[in-house]
Design brief:
The complex is a heterodimer of chains A (301) and B (637). Chain A is α/β, with parallel strands linked by helices and 301 residues long. Chain A has helices at 7-25, 37-50, 69-82, 92-96, 101-125, 190-200, 264-272, 291-297, and strands spanning 29-32, 59-62, 86-89, 129-131, 148-151, 179-182, 211-218, 221-224, 239-244, 255-258. Chain A has a six-stranded mixed sheet with strand order 3-2-1-4-6-5, with helices on both faces. A four-stranded antiparallel barrel of chain A has the order 7-8-10-9. In chain A, strand 2 (59-62), helix 3 and strand 3 form a beta-alpha-beta unit. The chains are: A alpha/beta (301), B alpha/beta (637). Chain A: It is an enzyme of class 2 (transferase).
Chain lengths: 301, 637
């Protein structure tokens, strides 16, 4: 008998180990659920880690109110089918002030409806550990982050003063108000995620598969017109195009790529010849180099 | 020429994708780190590897061009270090502060590379990267040669169990690709590293900036006959030799979804185990057999290193997080004192006598550094005297724990042989440790210093330590009499304590039931505690049904001569049933309580008690006065 022998089995075992460490060490953990492919994998791994029990923590979705409609439908269906305890948090102050990406810009919208909303939700429930689906291959500052990433009482990350993380021994100790963000998918790559979804038959939103969708070309990127809140410029025309998404977020901030790949296999095939990274579709990251680090220091995931 | 990069490939149909995935899954993984002194070109080397293996996307390349113009240190050339130095402070200062993990693959292998900082003040981040690596690429600047940091990183790599080294003599272009320079650095390094016992040390002359000997062998160094860096990384056999290692399974989490399922979750640290195999849990000690190996994808027949599973045992054992399930033949150590190699990370130094938390993969216990044996000189690996370990220093320490833990020597098993040290006030991770060996109690000076003994403690209290053992049926009046006697003794300045049968079952003995085995264990534990209290100089009043003669005799044997006084509180069963102060007889008679003494479990009355109190028709005060008189006559109070 050989030990764990495939790469995905190694990654799966490591993620399960990490999740069990959290369950064993924290009083009130929560799993952040963003409805995307990484979240889908995270949830699937949580089901595996605690089988035959259910995961001993709730799932939290921070809803910016600008997600693709299909994402919300998918979220509610998954919660019903898998029977997990779903919490949804919306920053009501932001809603009252009418904060949105078109009126206030991507940066402010993300800060208020995502970063601040997340902080509100964590404080409201008193969570001392929060799982996120971030991977180190996504972005340069993520590549620097620990698997168990300490946050002070103000939810801030101090990248210059991270706890050493030796072997598989995780320092889970926090004082009141402090917390740890935990990233079980740290060592997975985008390609690993897709292969795992394929092999394990993990449900993901159809937005990842190519279909004819109404889009406009804005600044060289395809933005989907998901509802009538999207204001069109005089020269913009809504067209139907075969597009899919490599990453899912707020629909005005997530660009589609043109693609014919309408099966998972074809998506993986396209991945293999892809020439740009998935975060290119995230408009929010392009403001300046180091913008992800800045957001993370403020409490973004 | 090597065939490089998994991408782009010609995979456009579903079948191609399936076969591609199958091929990907069977690739081996090599985890390595780049280390060495600052400015030796570590980040540049990794950027070069990613770039030349075509793993830099177009948008990342565009960002790199922009960044190179702004922060670059190579004039108009691309500065590959900026591909990995992801923190703003790093880009501004042009240095690496924390470890970055990068992923790439070739047709032969997958790689996770940890790019670690060279500055001495960030050594802890280098250790973080090294702790999960199989191989270290130690960079040396050909123009500068070996530096203290080169040696420090090499020693840390060795201590952390890395068995394979690549000595990458970088910037060889700056010395005109000179073979003499390369040979001199290689020989000096080998002379130093010989003592550290690496399985392989491969020296390679490279230029990370220009790509010489990184992917392909360089035409600029015809004299070099070895492999390029990537060739070596693709082919080196860095798997730990694991055959025949004993089974180790540190329990992470107990999974109890309902009363019918109790599973122990964990990752197999070494060895293998199958359903039906016998296992030993050394602490708290228990034996069992594997009943099931549970996973979400179905039960397994056997399980081996690296798999995360849930074990179900064939019997109830009292184990929780921190226990280690083992093969019964080759046992791990269970000890509360041990020696270990320590790498210190914190600004405030390690000082003997100070308390820290020792945390292993799944256990955690308070620990005192009882002794700092020596510090290791990073230039020549020699031990030297020291009174403390400063930040980034390495030494051998002895620890004394508040409770025993289970471990192996680090060289036997990295998972069960490693620990971290946590500051209890700040919660910072202040050090990393590698177990060497347990230290025996016999060698413990604390047990030889018995100047303060029982006689001295009794003298101080001006009393004769004793154990007053009250035995009798439930409801016979043991506790009432003991309580009243203690009040009187206390009032007259005696130092006393009551061990009450009901009370100890709420704490010390809450895991015990009322079967014969459990009753015996109940009495054994109380006897041991009573003995310790008497040793502390106290008058101990034990109020316990203690139905069996054998166990009362055992309790007497544990105590010193004339120290144990058996007091039989003799109340007829019928009278106890009528009194029934806790309503227990009523329930026992209705069969609601099993194994109730006097009803369906025997009471063996003492044949020759020291004091025989017949309670019928007498008040508690009267009985206590009789007892007190007996004790005073014999000098007990």
């Amino acid at each position: 008998m050989r030990a764990v022998h495939t790469h995905l089995q190694r990654l799966e075992a490591e993620s399960i180990h990490i999740m069990r460490e959290v369950a064993a060490n924290f009083a009130k953990p929560v799993m952040l659920y963003s409805i995307g492919k990484d979240s889908s994998v995270l949830l699937h791994l949580a089901m595996k880690a605690f089988y035959p029990a259910k995961p001993p923590f709730p799932i939290l979705h921070v809803d910016t109110t600008w997600k693709f409609r299909e994402m919300i439908e998918f979220r509610d269906r998954m919660a019903a089918e898998r029977g997990f305890d779903l919490l949804v948090h919306i920053n009501q102050e932001g809603v009252r002030e009418g904060i949105g990406p078109f009126t206030h810009g991507a940066g402010l919208h993300t800060h208020v409806m995502k970063t601040l909303a997340l902080r509100q939700a964590l404080e409201k429930h008193g969570f001392d550990a929060a799982f996120g689906g971030a991977r180190r291959d996504e972005e340069k500052s993520r590549a620097k982050e620990r698997i168990f990433s300490f946050r002070n009482a103000a939810h801030a990350w101090d990248p210059k003063n991270q706890r050493p993380e030796m072997w598989k021994i995780y320092n889970t100790r926090v004082d009141a108000g402090e917390s740890i963000r935990v990233f079980p998918l740290s060592n997975w790559t985008e390609l690993d995620i897709w292969q795992y979804i394929l092999l394990e038959n993990i449900p993901i939103p159809d937005l990842y598969l190519a279909a004819r969708r109404p889009v406009v070309n804005r600044g060289g990127q395809w933005i989907m017109v998901d509802d009538d809140r999207m204001p069109l410029q005089p020269d913009e025309v809504v067209e139907e195009r075969m597009v899919r998404f490599r990453t899912l977020g707020c629909y005005p901030l997530t660009a589609a790529v043109e693609s014919e790949a309408d099966t998972l296999e074809e998506v993986v095939a396209e991945m293999l010849i892809a020439q740009s990274s998935e975060r290119q579709g995230r408009l929010i990251d392009h403001d300046e180099a180091g913008s992800m680090e800045k957001k993370k220091r403020e409490g973004y995931f | 020429m090597l065939q490089v990069a998994a991408r782009p490939i010609d995979a456009t149909s579903a079948t191609d994708v399936q076969s591609y995935i199958a091929a990907q899954q069977n690739k081996t993984l090599l985890r390595f780190l780049t280390c060495g002194s600052v400015d030796d070109g570590k980040s540049t080397l990794i950027g070069r590897l990613l770039y030349d293996t075509k793993l830099v996307f177009e948008d990342q390349l565009a960002a790199l061009r922009k960044d190179s113009e702004r922060h670059g240190t190579n004039g108009s050339d691309l500065d590959f270090a900026l591909l990995v130095d992801g923190l703003e402070a790093e880009r501004e200062q042009g240095i690496t502060i924390d470890v970055a993990y990068r992923f790439f693959a070739t047709a032969k292998r997958k790689f996770i590379v940890a790019d670690t900082p060279g500055h001495e003040q960030y050594t802890r981040n280098m250790a973080t990267g090294a702790s999960t690596a199989d191989l270290a690429v130690v960079l040396v600047n050909a123009k500068v040669g070996l530096l203290p940091q080169t040696r420090r990183h090499t020693i840390i790599a060795s201590l952390l169990g890395i068995r394979h080294i690549v000595l990458a003599v970088n910037k060889i272009d700056l010395v005109g690709y000179d073979q003499g320079v390369f040979n001199a650095i290689r020989d000096e390094y080998n002379a130093f590293a010989d003592a550290l016992g690496f399985a392989s040390v491969q020296a390679i002359p490279i230029s990370a900036r220009h790509g010489d000997n990184v992917i392909d062998r360089s035409a600029n160094m015809e004299w070099y006959e070895g492999p390029s860096l990537l060739e070596h990384l693709e082919t080196v056999d860095a798997e730990e030799p694991l055959r025949g290692r004993p089974f180790r399974f540190p329990v992470q989490y107990v999974n109890r979804p309902n009363a019918n399922f109790r599973g122990y979750c964990g990752t197999v640290a070494s060895g293998r185990i199958a359903v039906g195999d016998e296992v030993l849990i050394p602490h708290p000690r228990a034996m069992a057999r594997i009943k099931r190996i549970v996973t979400h994808d179905g039960d397994l027949d056997e399980v081996a290193r690296g798999q995360a599973v849930t074990l179900v045992l064939d019997r109830e054992v009292d184990i929780s997080r921190g226990a280690v399930v083992c093969s019964p033949d080759r046992k791990p150590h269970v000890a509360d004192q041990f020696a270990a190699n320590v790498v210190w990370f914190n600004e405030s130094p390690l000082v003997p006598g100070r308390m820290y938390l020792v945390r292993t993969e799944t256990d955690q216990v308070s620990a005192k550094v009882s002794q700092l044996r020596h510090r290791i000189n990073v230039n020549n690996t020699a031990p030297e005297d020291a009174t403390s370990l400063e930040m980034n220093e390495i030494g051998v320490c002895e620890f004394s724990l508040q409770a025993p833990i289970t471990f192996d020597a680090f060289e036997e098993n990295k998972s069960t042989g490693s620990f971290i040290l946590i500051d209890r006030m700040t919660n910072a991770t202040v050090g990393a440790g590698m177990f060497l060996q347990p230290l025996r109690r016999a060698a413990n000076i604390q047990w030889q210093k018995l100047d303060v003994n029982k006689a001295a403690r009794a003298e101080q209290k001006q009393q004769q330590p004793s154990i007053l053992w009250f035995t009798g049926l439930s409801g016979s009046g043991k506790s009432t009499i003991a309580n009243l006697l203690e009040r009187k003794l206390h009032a007259s300045g005696r130092h006393t304590y009551i061990l009450d049968g009901d009370n100890v079952r709420h704490g010390l003995n809450r895991d015990l039931g009322f079967s014969q085995e459990d009753r015996i264990e109940n009495i054994r534990r109380v006897s041991e505690v009573a003995k310790l209290m008497a040793d502390a100089g106290l008058i101990v009043l034990v109020s316990l049904i203690s139905p069996y003669r054998a166990e009362r005799a055992m309790a007497r044997e544990l105590a010193d001569k004339n120290e144990f006084i058996e007091i039989f509180v003799d109340t007829p069963l019928q009278e106890c049933i009528e009194r029934d102060p806790k309503g227990l007889y009523a329930r026992a008679l209705k069969d609601e309580i099993k194994n109730f003494t006097g009803i369906d479990s025997p009471y063996e009355a003492p044949e020759a008690p020291d004091v025989h109190l017949k309670t019928s028709g007498r008040s508690a005060e009267d009985l206590v006065a009789e007892l007190e008189g007996w004790l005073r006559e014999r000098g007990y109070c």
